[in-house]
Amino acid sequence: MLDFIKRMQLQKLLALGALIILYLFFAYFGRNFVSVPTTLSILSRSYFVGFLAIGVTFVIITGGIDLSIGTVMMCSALIGGLLFTVFGFPLWLCLIIMILVGTAFGTANGLLVTKLGLPPFIATLGMMMVSMGLGSILTNVRAQNFPTLLGENAWFVRLFLRTEGNIPTGAFFLAGYLILTFIILKMTKLGRYTYAIGSNEEAVRLSGVNASRWKMITYMISGTSAGIASIFFAAAYTVMTPGTGQGFELDAIAAAVIGGTSLSGGVGSVTGTIIGVFIMSTLAVGLVSIGLRAPYQVFFTGVVVIGAVFLDIQRTRRANRVKK
After folding, report:
1. What DSSP letter does each residue of 209-233 carry, written as one string?
2. Full-model pTM
3. CATH class label, 36-312
4. Which H or E run includes 30?
5. Strand, helix or coil at 167?
6. Helix (H) or strand (E) segment spanning residue 86
């Protein structure tokens, strides 16, 4: 157990060191990287990716995966924007519905995996397509708008993103969610069963625990987190475009893996995940600051994803050798 704790702490320290090196690199080579606008850009991206990554961390610890969170986030935002701009729903009610939409998709994923026995990769891949198509169908493939910092309902941006004085209010929500999920993982029955299922699901079942129910809850948390992320995405970008959202799930999964969450299950933490989130956000914003176009950004993000998975595989192999 002591060796396990040491490995987890080492992974976090390495991720934190990588974040510092990455920031210093872009600070030296990037244009105006060390500035308030750049910092706000990194934070703005970290909010919605952070919620996605924290949610999917629960699923990955159980040994599963959720590929639908990016498009679920976008679908939730599109539905919220449609209700607000077309049907005139109060904005506060739209925000609640956005979270409920994400929860509904998470519940559907959980049912497909635990009740129908579909592999998580296939179930959530299918739900990715369903959510992307549903958002386009309901909005008739039309972009949906949310309030900006100027004009009516400006409180939306001031509350979930930043104030006119550039105080990053969204950071307080992300920090609060991080603390909440940390407590859930470390100090509750859900957290204990989440780790146990990822380590040996069959043993959990044989001990008399309803493993399917607890696993389903992790998918619900992932979906709810995607619904919450849609609020912060809408605050950051204000215009939601149908047919988008793919790719954000890779950022979230990569962030979790970089932070020490094992794709094999049984290992992970939300504190490590949030370090990974800032690595991905710094990379995305930093590549722009050194003048690389979008294709290069996708390329290097893919390299980071591959590298993170490779390190996870090596870490798992070393752990298995120690057990033998």
Report:
1. --HHHHHHHHHHHHHHHHHHHHHHH
2. 0.93
3. mainly alpha
4. none
5. coil
6. none
